[in-house]
């Protein structure tokens, strides 16, 4: 019998490198059938089972499926029963969700004192569309303090992109095991069974779920063949199995509802697999940002890590965008994000540090949401620092910050749970009330240039370039 390896050191794990590859992985030599998918009898007496992530008939470029060779097939379980789980905290039904044009922000979500695992610690913030029609998305958060033990989850509604913010995740999947630390992300696609253990005892993070397409790398256009998230930096687990008799609970999410079935063995009994439908992780430190090296602030799409496309060209169901540590070198430029209203809705989270647009109030483990056409941009303090004369001299330094955005074409509807959360920041709008008028009808380019020159001379006399301050135009 192979024992449960949930506590194995992260360094001991082996991964396959690359994005979207047709891969093969064997935990025992010769476990994959040679030259065919389903021989009459498989090597080692395994069962062959296909997991389809697209319609059988999807075009080859989009087609996703894997073949799993396992000790017993996944069908070997007792009937599913609905789990008694409060429907309003985890949902895929947004028909009665609430919309608001107001800017929303949440302080960090508290991690429960009592023992709560990844699944019971998941709660939905917002979403749109429908898991039934396989169209749309949901954004969840999780806070947990216990490993899942002998239970696993399979999500029939879509793909999960998981962003741990505090505390790592040790995830056992049917394809193998991965350790995902804060600063890394992982994607676990529709239907894959996985169980989350907590090497750090607790974890908090964000989850983007897409009901339709799968995540892919964005096109690079004129950037060329390299840069942003490079394919080789994505890591897929290698086959790992346990042949363990136990009382196991398989939890299945269908249309946001949870069902549970008992079975007498661990579902992580896949000895070998091959295919192009497999989970993966990615270290955001490997992201190679491309940005303006002269002037102006590019649109944040320049920082796209992964995109889940809709049928509308160039328009995502959801993009995953990261704001990594980087040099900010644009001159005579307002460096923080510009003020704007966007057809896409923007949910943001912070993994660590301070975000370019918010000097205060946007904290690691917190979140913000600016829905379709809701105005937003830098807070007053950030505006003032970024427009001060000294800002021209500072801000070339990289700062240790890691924020991200889930950006979606679908207008999000919020759950009562998210809107009623005790950590919602009811004073968020006040971060902009100090943005007073600087309008000067007597302004001329000559006067402006003279003021700039005087300020530059003053700052030189005062000791040259200032040191960068958090949020001080270094965005
Ligand atoms: O709103 C935000 O902070 C996200 C964002 C960042 C940026 O650099 C430009 C536009 C934008 O929406
Ligand atoms: Fe924005």
UniProtKB/TrEMBL annotation:
Keyword annotations of the record: Dioxygenase, Iron, Metal-binding, Oxidoreductase, Phenylalanine catabolism, Tyrosine catabolism
Entries under Pfam families matching the protein: HgmA_C, HgmA_N
Signal peptide: none
Domain Homogentisate 1,2-dioxygenase N-terminal span(s) in chain numbering: 14-284
GO CC entries: cytoplasm
Cofactor requirement: Fe cation
UniProt pathway annotation: Amino-acid degradation; L-phenylalanine degradation; acetoacetate and fumarate from L-phenylalanine: step 4/6
Domain Homogentisate 1,2-dioxygenase C-terminal span(s) in chain numbering: 286-439
Domain of life: Eukaryota
Listed Low complexity bias regions: 451-469
Amino acids binding Fe cation: 340, 376
UniProt-listed Enzyme Commission number(s): 1.13.11.5
Stored PANTHER family: HOMOGENTISATE 1,2-DIOXYGENASE
The protein's name: homogentisate 1,2-dioxygenase
Organism, as annotated: Chlorella variabilis (Green alga)
Organism lineage string: Eukaryota, Viridiplantae, Chlorophyta, core chlorophytes, Trebouxiophyceae
């Amino acid at each position: 019998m192979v024992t449960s390896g949930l506590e194995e050191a992260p360094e001991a794990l082996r991964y396959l490198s690359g994005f979207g590859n047709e891969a093969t992985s064997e935990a025992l030599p010769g476990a994959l059938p040679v030259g065919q998918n389903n021989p009459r009898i498989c090597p080692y007496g395994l069962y062959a089972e296909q997991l389809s992530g697209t319609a059988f008939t999807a075009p080859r470029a989009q087609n996703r499926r894997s073949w799993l060779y396992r000790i017993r097939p996944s069908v070997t379980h007792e009937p599913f029963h609905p789990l008694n789980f409060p429907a309003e905290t985890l949902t895929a039904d947004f028909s009665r969700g609430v919309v608001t044009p107001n800017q929303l922000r949440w302080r960090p979500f508290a991690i429960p004192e009592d023992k709560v695992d990844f699944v019971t610690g998941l709660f939905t913030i917002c979403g749109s569309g429908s898991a039934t029609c396989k169209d749309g998305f949901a954004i969840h958060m999780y806070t947990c303090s216990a490993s899942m033990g002998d239970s696993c989850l399979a999500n029939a509604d879509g793909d999960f992109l998981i962003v741990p913010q505090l505390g790592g995740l040790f995830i056992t999947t049917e394809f193998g095991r991965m350790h995902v630390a804060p600063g890394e992300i992982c994607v676990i696609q529709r239907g894959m069974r996985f169980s989350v253990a907590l090497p750090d005892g607790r974890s908090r993070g964000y989850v983007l779920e897409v009901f339709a397409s799968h995540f892919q790398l964005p096109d690079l256009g004129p950037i060329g063949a390299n840069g942003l998230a490079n394919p080789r930096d994505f890591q897929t687990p290698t086959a790992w199995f346990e042949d363990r008799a136990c009382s196991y609970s398989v939890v299945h999410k269908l249309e946001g509802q949870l069902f549970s079935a008992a079975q007498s063995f661990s579902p992580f009994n896949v000895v070998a697999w091959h295919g192009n439908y497999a989970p993966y992780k990615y270290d955001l430190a490997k992201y190679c940002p491309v940005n303006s090296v002269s002037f102006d602030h590019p649109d944040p799409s320049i920082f796209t890590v992964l995109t889940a496309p809709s049928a509308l060209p160039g328009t995502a169901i959801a993009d995953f965008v990261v704001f990594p540590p980087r040099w900010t070198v644009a001159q005579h430029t307002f460096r923080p994000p510009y003020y704007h209203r966007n057809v896409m809705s923007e949910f943001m989270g912070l993994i660590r540090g301070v975000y370019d647009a918010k000097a205060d109030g946007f904290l690691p483990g917190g979140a913000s949401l600016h829905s379709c056409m809701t105005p937003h941009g830098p807070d007053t303090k950030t505006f003032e620092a970024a427009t001060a004369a000294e800002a021209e001299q500072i801000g070339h330094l990289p700062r240790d910050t890691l924020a991200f955005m889930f950006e979606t074409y679908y207008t999000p509807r919020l759950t009562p749970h998210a809107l009623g959360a005790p950590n919602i920041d009811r004073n968020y709008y006040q971060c902009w009330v100090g943005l007073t008028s600087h309008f000067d009808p007597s302004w001329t380019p000559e006067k402006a240039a003279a003021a700039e020159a005087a300020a530059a001379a003053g700052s030189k006399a005062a000791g040259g370039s200032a040191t960068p301050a958090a949020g001080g135009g270094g965005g």
